[in-house]
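Q: Predict the bound structure with 4AD.
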Amino acid sequence: MLVKKLKETFEQYDGQSVTLQGWVRTNRNSKAVGFIALNDGTTFSNVQVVYGENLENFDEVSKITTGSAMEVTGKLVCTPDAKQPFEIQAENVCVLGLCDHDYPLQKKRHSFEFMREIPHVRPRANTYYAMFRLRSVLSMAIHTFFQDRGFVYVNTPEITGNDAEGAGECFTVTTREDAKYDKDFFGKHAQLTVSGQLHVEPFALAYRNVYTFGPTFRAENSNTTRHASEFWMIEPELAFADLADNMDCIEEMIKYCINYCLEHAKEEMEFFASMIDKECIKRVTHVANSSFERMTYTKAIEYLEKAKDQFENQDIFWGMDLQSEHERYICEKVVNGPVFLTDYPKDIKAFYMRINDDNKTVAACDLLVPYVGELVGGSQREERYDVLVNRMKEMGMEQETLQWYLDLRRFGGCKHSGFGLGFDRMLMYLSGVANIRDVQPYPRTPRNLIF
Ligand code: 4AD
Ligand code: MG
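A: Predicted complex:
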């Protein structure tokens, strides 16, 4: 019997015998009676197993260590006055796999740093146990949101010939044999994708509304709490949509995901609110119920200039790339909530963004949120062939490898827009967990490659 199922229907099992398997979270006992907190992996909370001297292996059971796997058969008894709605009075306990004494998870609280060294047992510690289920629930929220609205899910390649963002932050892909001769992928230049955007755009021009959802890779050697070398990204692309439509979609999606997680990962979110960030539920609930501000980059620079004494980097000028402290100031101090910054200077943004009539800015939008900073980056795409070719020339880009991308502008091109949501950052935002290394099952950052 699975505990999740049992929790929904336990009243009808009152007084009956049930069999559960799971892992021991704690085992306390006195001479004649003992209590095991058992977790079978299907719910966040444990089930209490009570055992006494009626067990023929009482001595063995009283020595079961934390982390061990076991099976129990016993009578389910409803306990309406206790914290737990029911308990299991053990009649038979079978130890399936004892946990050795050097098991690294002990009762005390371990630091996040320590836990990162042991990713193979990390999912059994409460914070991670809650996080990785939340991760699964959030994936489902995203798929449900887009599938309900008729978006087609496209699998874009991980191995690619282009650097979509043009930022030069790519990992090269090669074979062992080619690497010996300093060549690339079977003689061709190849790298791990930094974004699926360029590959998903052709699908938007066939299916109208599409999205990718998969791993992306960035070779930036930045050791921050928000950057990973491998992270997951959701990249929707909408045909016949402009920047305002794009922002509407982002806002609707974020709100949907918040509500979905509050409903489907209730125990996990309550755990984060009690142990990690007291405000997290209140904060995201508020976000789900208010409208997101929209502010131009130019306006943001005005705010930053007025407050420049507060920053480490005080060199504020129009055209600068905002740093994390500046982004956080805008969403935490000026707006106190999520804010879209729009119309960035073209020189600090990617080549594919649509140039505005002022010829200085592009139709871009970044969604900034308190605590995390940039959560989403998006734009309306440049659909005018000549303008795009000129922009690529201006930026010194090679046209040849992206001719197929340019061709889309000649083969029934239309106005279209899209964005990228950082999946790992969304988990940070929901839970209040402050480091991206603690929302990833196997963190991949410059100094964190542990098997
Ligand atoms: O702003 P970015 O670089 O945008 C793109 O890649 C576009 N091609 C998206 C699109 O329009 N289809 O990245 C999008 C988001 C960021 O806002 C951030 O949340 C996340 O991806 N992100 C990272 N997350 C973790 N570690 C990193 N190194 C990240 N770099 C970006
Ligand atoms: Mg960005």
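A: The chain has two domains: 3-97, 116-438.
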